[in-house]
């Protein structure tokens, strides 16, 4: 069993230490020393005040923050939780992900989802109703950019001719892609596009807000573990919530500054 931790910046307002370089470095390094397999950040570039007041959270940019974490670690996998793919042009995502994977020595996993916050979509100029189609097209573009030269793509939302984007990712043939979501449509995307599945722990009160199917599981604050082995037609693996390893938590406790640990502990208990 492998365990993954998301940076515990899960409140609004956030604890200032968790948004500092020293705080990110401390949590990432402690997670690696404790034996965690991966480390990630959430993705909310323009959340609404209403969502924040209803229990949402502030966030760092996942690509920038993971780049910082990569420089503080040597073996920890870098796994965003998760990148809302329709928010960004897929050529930009492909470049950011390839750069992070290359500079980290092949430690990046691209975990992606369609997103759900309508006001955030509106703020970013993206049609919420088109998010599923944007997602599917974007994954086609990203894989093509990572594996081919002089590519041309003609879709409903994205169009390009003669594109070659180097340097390529360090991972061979490319970084694993994990697909998030609980609905039947999301699970179909896992089967078609994914190297792994990121279910979203969503008890009943959260289902309507997130627009997803309920998966009532251990608290969202628990650590998630997965093996990603899908290549050449093999079946995708599931990333499902699992209880935090007691030994790992004990090791993390001795490595983190007291304020960081206090916030993390509170976040884990809150669910």
From TrEMBL:
Signal peptide, first to last residue: none
Keyword Flavoprotein among record annotations: yes
Source superkingdom: Bacteria
Record keyword RNA-binding present: no
Gene Ontology biological process terms in this record: alkanesulfonate catabolic process
GO molecular function: alkanesulfonate monooxygenase activity
Annotated ranges, domain Luciferase-like: 1-205
Name of the featured protein: Luciferase-like domain-containing protein
Protein's organism: Mycobacterium pseudoshottsii
Organism placement in taxonomy: Bacteria, Bacillati, Actinomycetota, Actinomycetes, Mycobacteriales
